[in-house]
Structures are given as structure tokens and as C-alpha cells.
Amino acid sequence: MGYKLAVAGKGGVGKTTVVGSIARVWAREGVKVLAVDADPASHLHSILEIPADRVPKPISAELDLIEERTGSRPGAETGPFYKLNPKVDDIPDGYSTVGADGVRLMVLGTIRAAGSGCFCPENAVLRGLIDHAILERDEAVVVDMEAGLEQFGRSTCRGVDLLLIVVGPGTRSIDTGRRIAELAAEMGIRRMAIVANGVRSSEEEDAVRQSLARHSLTLFATLPYSEAVARADMLGKSVFEVDGGEGWAAAVRQFSDEILRFIG
Fold it and tell me: What global pTM score does this model have?
């Protein structure tokens, strides 16, 4: 299974927990998984049970690597010329760490927005890595993104099997989800699905569904509120490490089955 899944959503909706949980569920089923942390505010390593001293350094901070691959050092007065398509295919294996269940984690760091006027060597490497992970690698890839889609070029968007948009029951996260869906459609993403995370009741689910419908959007699935997730967050642990985590894992496994049916 070499599916490519990108996950976006407003901060605080549990996006990173969903990303890491899907990666681990897939890995437990014998799938080789690369998890790409493309959200500077993310803590994907904690879900994968990678201790702080083993978290891979963000690629954007690997200045020697960037200079080697592009011919220009970030921040140095080396002029405007550098390789726009640097070699990146060996970076995921060489600059990543294997976590729980065999999931491999690569951390990108900050990718400057396409409209920011940034034409810099680190962007060339990071965008090349996103393209390579989505378009060329043969294992399953799960990308934890920022709320925007600035990291993606149009060709990359067409290579994603599914953009999963995570929302919470609140109106702000749903509004962010709407904006992400609009941008994704403009960029040519073929499949997208909205999941409501942390839903406590059928009434809450209905409220989310109705709110999305007002924007001509459909709720694909829900993930229930989990005391285990809340406890893990409070303790700074992975939800898979705390009591009750098996219930969350079962819910994610069922959700994963829905994703694969939708993609396949």
C-alpha cells in the first residue's frame, strides 16, 4: 500500500494526533510508512514515541546539507543563483528517525509561502522533498501540514490520494476547513474528505454536519472525543501509551478502513 495522505486543519483540532495514529495503524498492518512533519508547530514525534533527544533535526536547519545540494548557504551573501531541483531522494532515509511500530519520521521545518517572495535554497530542498515523498516514493506517506497548502505545488496536489481536513465542533475550525477545501479545489486536488474530531454526541455531530452543509461541504466521518487522548496530551505522552488508548486505536482503525475504501 503506497497511499499518499495529506492532513490539514486549524491548530488545536487534534490534527497531529490523527496523523500519527493513522501512520501507526497502517504500520501495525505491515505497511511501510513515512510520516512527514511539515507543520512547524507540530509534535508528531510524541505520537510516534520518539524521545526529544532522538527527534530528527528539521531539514530547514540542516544548513550544510542545503548548501551541498543547492550550491548556496541559507542566509549567506552568496548571490541569487542556486539549484532549483536539488537531489533529495536520499534525504528521507538519511535524515529521519524510526519510531513506534516502525513508522519513520522526517521533520521539514518552515516552508515559506509561495506568495511571500521567498526564493531561497532551503525552499528548493523542502519543496523538492514534498514532491519526492508524494510523487516518487513507493511506501505510504502521511504528511502533517499547516492549515494552508502553500507547501504544495500543483503537480504535488495531483499526486495526493487524499487530502484529509480535520475540523473540531467549533465554528472557527469549520471556517478554516472551508478555506482549505476551497484552496484545495483551486489547486486541483482530486479527493478531499472532512473529518470531525473530538465529537461528544450525535447532537454535536449533527451541528457540525449542518454547519458544513451551509458551505456546500459534506462530513465524511467523525472521530469520538477520547479521554485517553486528553490524558495523553496532559501527560505529554502518546495516546498509545496511556490507559484507554486501545479504544482510540480501534476508532482510528475503523476510520482508516473508511479512508482506504474511499481512496481505492
Answer: 0.91
